[in-house]
Amino acid sequence: DPTAVYFALNSISGDLVLIDVMLRTGAPVTFDAFTLEIHYEPGLVHLGGDFTSSPFTGTPFGTCNQCVGLCDANPCVKCGDCTGTAILTKQTNSPLCGSNGPMADGDGILLLGASINGQSVTLSGCSPSLTTVLAGQVKLMTLGFLATTLGTSRIQLFTNPIASEHGDCEILRSDPAGPVVDLGIPCRDGNATITGSQ
Fold it and tell me: Is residue 119 a contact partner of residue 32, using CB atoms and an 8 Å limit?
């Protein structure tokens, strides 16, 4: 597909495999949120890191859950940079990122989401904006998976077979006049697998 979400191998270090979740576009795509549902075999593989912990916190919208606010009269200052006698107000976090993290190792279903925190960011003096990806590719996030025993596990980008239902792999855009819009970009995991060899 000219436009799709897909996996790309980042690196392998011992039993830890880092996978980049990529968005490839054949034409410009504008979005401000995404959700992912990833299935794996928890008896063979465990989650080794997602964007709720360093060093996996990068997204196209910025560093996950980064605190910004008004530092005296200065807008959109990182909370840690407002020091001395300056007063920090209107703190907020953007982009907002969340996952079910280590709980995913119970049933092998990893749920992730990231979005620009539009209204709250405006209060902190920042200028929220949609992210536009030109024709090409951009990394949505990096994931780590840890092979725990001998065997091979599929790493599946789950797409709900019922098209009218949501909550799986979606690239999203806010619509000021209505609900969030699913851009309908397909997710193709390429039958990705991780194999534990020792």
Answer: no
Confidence grade of residue 165 (pLDDT, cut at 50, 70, 90): low
How many angstroms separate the Cα of 36 from the Cα of each of 53, 79, 86, 120, 173? 17, 29, 39, 24, 15
Can you tell me the distance from the alpha carbon of 82 to that of 88, in angstroms, rounded to the nearest whole number? 6
- Per-residue pLDDT tens digits for 34-44: 999 999 999 99
Instruction: Please tell me the distance from the alpha carbon of residue 113 to that of residue 96, in angstroms, as a whole number.
Output: 8
Averaged confidence pLDDT in the chain: 85
C-alpha 45/C-alpha 2 separation (Å) is 30
pTM here?
0.86
Pairing of strands 4-13, 187-188: parallel
Burial code (b: 16+ CB inside 10 Å, e: under 16) for 135-171 equals eeeeebbbbbbbbbeeeebebbbbbeeeeeeeebbbb
CB 138 within 8 A of CB 28: no
Q: Specify which residues 9 forms β-bridges with.
A: 19
Run of H or E residues at 76? strand 74-78
164-171 LR contacts (CB < 8 Å, sep 24+): 167/35, 167/37, 168/35, 168/37, 169/5, 169/35, 169/36, 169/37, 170/34, 170/35, 171/5, 171/23, 171/29, 171/31, 171/34
